[in-house]
Specification:
The chain is mainly alpha-helical. The protein folds into two domains: 53 residues, no CATH class; 29 residues. It has three helices and no strands. The longest helix has 19 residues. This is IS30 family transposase. One of its GO terms (molecular function) is nucleic acid binding.
Length: 85
């Protein structure tokens, strides 16, 4: 299989747009740039993930990642159940 791999140039964050956007979301929702993760609880980190997953995204038709996940999960369950009938 041929797979294209992109390597961003060092020091060029503009070449990694999605990564930089995701980092910005994390910073805005409670994880500043120099965050020390020692002592952070899983519930706290999960709450940050939940906040981010509840933000509507243009790329998802202004649905939240959580909502899109539920749509795919529902379809997968329907498909699995129909095979068992």
């Amino acid at each position: 299989h041929d797979i294209d791999i992109f390597f961003a140039d060092p020091g060029c964050p503009s070449q990694r747009g999605l990564n930089e956007h995701s980092n910005g979301l994390l910073r805005r929702h409670g994880l500043p740039k120099q965050t020390d993760f020692i002592g952070m609880t899983q519930p706290y980190l999960s709450s940050i993930a939940h906040k981010i997953n509840m933000i509507p995204r243009k790329s998802l038709g202004y649905k939240t990642p959580y909502h899109v996940f539920l749509i795919y999960l529902k379809e997968a369950l329907k498909k699995a159940m129909s095979k068992n009938v």
